[in-house]
Specification:
Helices cover about 25% and strands about 15% of the residues. The protein is α/β, with parallel strands linked by helices. The structure holds calcium ion (CA).
């Protein structure tokens, strides 16, 4: 079965194509399950997998092609929540589709209190197997992370998100959880993790773990029980059909258990979907989200959160948060309801816990109770979403040629297209929570080597001064490079963004004292590969720039997550972009201006004085000068000015 997925991914022509497939497989398919239906011919991925798997279960592929109820647009009548007044939010209508407006509630004041600490938070995402190996076995571990907390604090980061570190067969690098309550032995012990919480808190650092609520590993004890022919407590914890010969329009597996049924998958073959019910039901085996079985799944997930929060964890990044309830509508009413119940319960017990969703539609995610949602990197058939426009508007992760990203000095265009997508989403959630920029993540190609250091510096200037809570992926602060590598633990095209952290020029670049052959992934062999020790010596380094930006952010209330942002300049014919940030109490107003292009540009913004000598220029990259309301921005420049 695994081969089906492997070959499906590996023959795809480009990284972006692979990423698209992975995104679809990992849950974007769920985000867009209804929007994809706008063009039924675009349901290819799910159908191909269904067809492939169902060949193994003796079900004709054609049966999967007929109705596709999973991809039927949700009629208004299905929307469960009442809406007093609504504002439009733009959402991408799936690959091959277009941007369109969906209707979202913009009137509801969130019932959830947001943890105050998020207003000044800056996150650092750590892929545990690749950050620091403390015992020389070639795999990063929890004590390794603990040993680097001072480095993380020195960056200006005061929060961590650690990718799954739970017991797992690692067929999807830990997103296939075998035991939610146990640290994987290769990373250490539960005690090691509790010690990490303590050491982090002593440095003012909050720690979020990664919650994978939508599926488990096929080796999870719940699933082993659920597979049994005899009914038991876990029979309905997963989604089973009524016969070993009955499939469905979602990926499913048959013939592997004594139970006379097939089960629904969320992603890889090893990841059976947990049962949160179906919003729309067209088969007798589909249960309601209000069923006792779906409620039991929600309770079990709350219990897992409770377990780690009680041990000192500060919250969770939640994997594929938008896809719990199957056959849900465009507006995700039942998935939102499920989260409102779960987060309502856990937040009442742990009001300072923070939750960030892999959802990508912040108006929905915040309504569901999350504090933050990511601006995810989406690209479908060459069509970028707003974030992809900024930094990854290309089909080639490695090559500068053909890169039309806004931050590409020679290839990018006006910032207007990004803003036309970002601003409506930003306005829809203002005051309710945070829409968060990432530098990269474990599913996304790193900016380097495609973007130069200078291009990355301008990009970071924006990412770290926009509203919301920023997330820096480990190694991006030194410009670590995406590498073209064979797959590891289900990473496929994502593997190249998951290589060991480059600390210095010692053995394995300081990542591990072990044999290079034992490493989780090989370190970058290039003699010019960036490393922390070298960049610490150099004031013009990427590392120094990131520290400057985060130091500025920490010192200025106008750069806090909540502080409002207003666009000041977005020339249609130029490359420049300027915006203001104003402290919530009105005590401070900053102007951020940038020009990622290669030609000088002049824009009109309310900045006074010549910034070359002006003490109110708080941070400057390249040549920036202002005369009255006119600001001249040199090539590849960035400035933060107090006005
Ligand atoms: Ca280790």
């Amino acid at each position: 079965m695994m081969q089906i997925f492997s070959s499906r991914v590996s023959f795809l022509p480009s990284f972006v194509e692979k990423s698209r497939q992975i995104a679809l497989l990992r849950g974007v398919v769920a985000t867009f399950d209804a929007t994809l239906a706008v063009r039924p011919e675009n349901t290819g991925v799910g159908r191909i997998i269904c067809a492939s798997v169902c060949c193994d279960t003796s079900i004709r592929a054609g049966e999967q092609d007929r109705a596709h109820p999973a991809y039927t647009p949700c009629p208004d009548s299905v929307r469960a929540h009442s809406v007093a007044s609504r504002a439009a939010v733009r959402q991408y209508a799936g690959h091959g589709g277009d941007w369109r407006e969906i209707r979202k509630d913009n009137s509801m004041t969130s019932q959830f209190t947001r943890p105050a600490w998020l207003d000044t938070a800056v996150f650092y995402e750590i892929y545990p197997q690749s950050f620091c190996d403390s015992n020389g076995d070639g795999i990063g571990d929890i004590p390794g992370i603990t040993g680097k907390l001072d480095y993380i604090a020195s960056l200006g980061c005061n929060a961590l998100w650690i990718n799954p570190c739970y017991d797992s067969p690692f067929k999807d690098a830990g997103y296939d959880v075998r035991d939610y309550r146990k640290v994987a032995p290769r990373y250490g012990t539960n005690d090691d993790l509790v010690e990490l919480f303590h050491q982090a808190h002593a440095r003012g650092i909050h720690v979020l773990l990664d919650l994978v609520p939508g599926h488990t590993s096929e080796e999870h004890a719940w699933f082993k029980e659920s597979q049994r022919a005899q009914r038991n407590e876990y029979s309905d914890r997963y989604i089973w059909t009524n016969s070993a010969f009955e499939g469905y329009t979602m990926p499913f597996i048959g013939g592997e258990s004594e139970r006379n049924a097939t089960y629904i998958l969320n992603f890889f073959k090893c990841q059976p979907a947990l049962n949160y019910g179906f919003a729309k039901r067209d088969r007798p085996w589909q249960m309601s989200p209000d069923s006792p079985a779906a409620k039991a799944t929600r309770d079990a997930m709350v219990d897992i959160m409770r377990f780690w929060l009680a041990l000192g964890c500060d919250g969770f990044r939640v994997d594929m948060a938008n896809s719990l309830v199957k056959n849900d509508g465009d507006d995700k009413p039942e998935t939102i309801k499920a989260w409102q119940e779960m987060l309502g319960t856990i937040k009442a017990e742990f009001p300072q816990a923070a939750f960030v969703s892999e959802w990508g539609v912040p108006a929905q995610a915040l309504e569901a109770g999350f504090d933050m949602d990511f601006y995810l990197d989406w690209r479908f058939d060459g069509k970028p979403n707003g974030y992809n426009l900024l930094a990854r508007n290309t089909d080639n992760a490695l090559d500068t040629a053909g890169d039309r990203s806004y931050f590409s000095a020679s290839g990018g265009g006006s910032v207007q297209e990004f803003l036309s997508q970002y601003i409506p989403q930003y306005q829809a959630i203002r005051g309710k929570g945070y829409f968060c920029f990432i530098t990269c993540n474990h599913d996304t190609p790193r900016l380097a080597p495609r973007l130069t250091t200078r291009e990355q510096q301008v990009a970071f200037g924006m990412f770290l001064t926009m509203p919301g809570v920023p997330f820096i992926y480990y190694g991006d602060e030194i410009g670590m490079r995406y590498r073209d590598l064979p797959t590891k633990e289900g990473g496929y095209a994502r593997t190249g963004s998951r290589t060991p952290m480059q600390w210095d020029t010692s053995n394995n670049m300081g990542f591990s004292a072990g044999d290079p052959q034992s490493l989780y992934l090989p370190v970058d062999p290039d003699p010019q590969a960036p490393n922390v020790a070298e960049q610490e010596q150099r004031p013009d380094s990427m590392l120094a720039w990131v520290r400057s930006l985060l130091s500025l952010r920490a010192d200025h209330p106008a750069l806090r997550a909540k502080a409002p942002m207003t666009v000041l300049a977005q020339p249609a014919q130029g490359r420049s972009f300027a915006y203001s940030r104003i402290a919530e109490d009105g005590s401070e107003r900053l102007v951020i201006a940038m020009n990622p292009g290669l030609e000088s540009e002049t824009i009109t913004v309310p900045v006074q004085g010549n910034t070359a000598e002006n003490p109110d220029t708080l941070l400057c990259l390249g040549r920036v000068s202002a005369h009255g309301d006119t600001v001249e921005l040199g090539p590849q420049s960035f400035a933060v000015v107090r006005v």
